Amino acid sequence: MKVIKAKIYKKRxxxxxxxxxxxxxxxxxxxxxxxxxxxxxxxxxIEYCIATADEDIADxxxxxxxxxxxxIKEAKKLGKEWGFKI
Length: 86
Description:
- This protein has 86 residues and is an alpha+beta fold.
- The protein has one domain.
- Helices cover 22% and strands 43% of the residues.
- Strands 1, 2, 3, 4 and 5 form a 5-stranded antiparallel beta sheet that branches.
- It is globular.
């Protein structure tokens, strides 16, 4: 397992939000722990999430330039900044 900070593409409209994850994202093998969220930003935004993933999936997403591996300490710090407890 690896901890990653992954890009997510978010389209936010009033009352509705849609996420697009990296192309190799496999929800059955990835557990999202926290989402960056800026609810006042409408339209298309690039934001991030912190997740744990099986090594092969994490490595593929990292190689695609859609994520970076981070430490647990970094994940906890970002989670706290984003309002989540990791």
